[in-house]
């Protein structure tokens, strides 16, 4: 073949197509060979150092003793070490002191998010937005008060606001009048508000009393929110809230967490709720 090679002196294989398209027989470039051998060496070294080959009952463990679960545990230890520094700092501080420290506050909010999801979100919504029967925690309208100590108390001891049923005390007509006055935002303009004792719990101006958790009736922020708000207001006036003597009374109870969560967790949750936007 060599003598018939139309390209004498060239290192081709003798396979020639279309007159001049030919297959050369050059060695692979040097850089390519280096990379090739290096990758084989790397593969062997990897097999020696790390777990690699499956066997019948086990696998080669590698001389470094590396396992995925160990790496995970080491990572976890690291996180817990960082956390324990923060946690022990929090132990000795009041919620108010935490709020005064920006770094601690951010840490607290981040770590209380899970606590809130586990313990509070079912009633108050995942971001504290509330629901028809559960108060909003993201606004600055408070039944019991938005001071940090008050929020802590609410979480520790629970709350159960009581409004007496008026089913036997008011006629339907009187309920209509009171409901209309409440809807107008000026309940005190209705003489029945004084005459029937509403002021005793809601205050003479109808703005509510935080010691009793009686809702502010002048701000159009509804504790018992409904599509038909007038009907909801009438229902509350007629049957009250948590009045055991009236089976139609609304039920509204904030459970106590003092016996379920640690003091530290409650402190964190108080800071979290405070920082949801409505702290005072
Ligand atoms: C079973 C439902 C339920 C769960 C769970 C719950 N709450 Fe409540 N929460 C309520 C109800 C109902 C009220 C209103 C009580 C009332 O009207 O007297 C309330 C009231 C509150 C208030 C007072 C709001 C105000 O306007 O003064 C705060 C603060 C609060 N909850 C925080 C929390 C936190 C934090 C958690 C989790 C640790 C939590 N709640 C878990 C039902 C719940
Ligand atoms: C014994 C105290 C008490 C009396 C008396 C009382 N209320 Fe209430 N009222 C409350 C409390 C406490 C709440 C809030 C309950 C809760 O959120 O758990 C409330 C809630 C309400 C609400 C619901 C507001 C909302 O945002 O959804 C209306 C409306 C209302 N009261 C109107 C009246 C009227 C009108 C009278 C007089 C006929 C009256 N109340 C008498 C304690 C009282």
TrEMBL record:
Compartments in which it is found: Cell inner membrane
Keywords, sorted A to Z: Cell inner membrane, Cell membrane, Electron transport, Heme, Hydrogen ion transport, Ion transport, Iron, Membrane, Metal-binding, Oxidoreductase, Repeat, Respiratory chain, Transmembrane, Transmembrane helix, Transport
SUPFAM superfamilies: Cytochrome c
Domain of life: Bacteria
Known pathway: Energy metabolism; oxidative phosphorylation
InterPro entries per record: CcoP_N, CcoP_N_sf, Cyt_c-like_dom, Cyt_c-like_dom_sf, Cyt_C_IC, Cyt_c_oxidase_cbb3_su3, Cytochrome_c_Oxidase_Subunit
Gene Ontology terms, MF aspect: electron transfer activity; heme binding; iron ion binding; oxidoreductase activity
Ranges of residues in domain Cytochrome c: 107-277
Family: Belongs to the CcoP / FixP family.
Identification of the protein by name: Cbb3-type cytochrome c oxidase subunit
Source organism per UniProt: Sedimenticola thiotaurini
